[in-house]
Design goal:
348 residues, Pseudouridine synthase, 6 helices
């Protein structure tokens, strides 16, 4: 019965699990919003103490569950038929951070941000129904990542927050730091790239951008200014480098096209770093050979933004996707050795 207070002991099968996930397995109809409210009001308790929804449960602990009513015995909410249960679980597992206003995803590589030519129905925007967590409206994407780029993606849970975040992005008040593995080692090891970008042709996955020298941007039809800062964090001799990238503009394929223009295409980038791409590494394009994955090695690692409601600064980081972590492990690069913001280091 769920109409009375329950006390449930955590078994070995349920240990080392987040409280909210444990609850949703036992009571599928419970929304995330309801769980958060029960925690805030102190009605959910573990060993008599107040907890947060993300509290990890340990074997032997006792969870006090208040009366949930008959609704908790109902089946889990149904989603659009096009959204499979595995997709629901996948996109919910991508939630890196959230509050009442914002959801932050660690988008996996290969998942488009939005639908479009050649993208099909499986994309983040099409799965936001599974990210409502008790809200009436679906969260809204406020920016995008390329399909093959992984990392931090912001969603707003209300129209007001969407407007605030969109304004911050438009005025470049959001700092985004990407990590990439690139062919060769750029010289100098830190600098700015200000080549403009113009669309060569194609749509969707076939879209490709061409770099235009800064002096030619004004006279090149369709060219737009673009600005990227880069810094080498460490190098594998002259064969490959781990670089940090900050885009000051948000052009299509900006980081990929800019690094290829430097002669140091991003590893795994078949569009801008194929075998025909001249580079300053060992002449092997954007591939590193051996057991290294051919997937794109570009990841939105850090995001620094003022919260549009609380006005507190949020600094969020996303762990590397599996294929990039394998590369880092293979070549001996340690993520714990990297500064949070290599472009804003205090003077030594």
């Amino acid at each position: 019965m769920t109409s009375k207070v329950q006390t449930i002991a955590i078994t070995e099968e349920d240990g080392d699990q987040r409280l909210d996930r444990w609850l949703r397995k036992r009571f599928p109809y419970l929304t995330q919003g309801r769980i958060e409210k029960l925690c805030r009001k102190g009605e959910l308790r573990v060993d008599g103490g107040r907890v947060k929804s993300a509290t990890r449960l340990e074997v032997g602990q006792k969870v006090r569950i208040p009366p949930l009513g008959e609704e908790a015995d109902q089946p889990a909410p149904k989603f659009n038929k096009k959204i499979t249960r595995s997709d629901v679980e996948m996109i919910q597992s991508c939630v890196l951070w959230k509050d009442e206003h914002i959801i932050v995803l660690n988008k996996p590589p290969g998942l488009p941000s939005q639908g479009g030519s050649g993208q099909g129905d499986r994309h983040v925007d099409g799965l936001t129904e599974a990210l409502m967590f008790g809200y009436k409206d679906r969260p809204k994407l406020v920016h995008r990542l390329d399909k093959d780029t992984s990392g931090l993606l912001l969603l707003a849970r209300t129209d007001r927050v969407a407007r605030g975040l969109s304004e911050a992005l438009r005025h470049r008040d959001v700092r985004k730091i990407y990590w990439a593995a690139v062919a060769g080692t750029p010289v100098p090891r830190a600098g700015s790239i200000k080549y403009g970008l113009v669309k060569l042709g194609g749509r969707g996955e076939n879209e490709r951008m061409h770099c235009v020298h800064p002096k030619d941007i004004a006279t090149t039809e369709g060219a737009k200014r673009a600005h990227t800062d880069y810094a080498v964090l460490t190098a594998l001799g002259t064969r490959a480098s781990w670089v940090a990238l900050v885009p000051h503009t948000g052009r299509t394929h900006q980081l990929r096209a800019h690094m290829a223009e430097l002669g140091h295409p991003i590893i795994g980038d078949g569009k801008y770093g194929g075998s025909s791409q001249e580079n300053l590494g060992d002449g092997w394009g954007a591939g590193i050979g051996g057991d290294i994955s051919r997937k794109l090695h570009l990841h939105a690692r850090t995001l620094i933004v003022e919260h549009p409601i609380t006005k507190k600064m949020l600094t969020l980081t996303a762990p590397l996707p599996a294929h990039m972590q394998r590369t880092w492990d293979f070549v001996g690069w340690d993520v714990t050795h990297a500064p949070l913001d290599p472009f804003n280091m205090p003077d030594a």
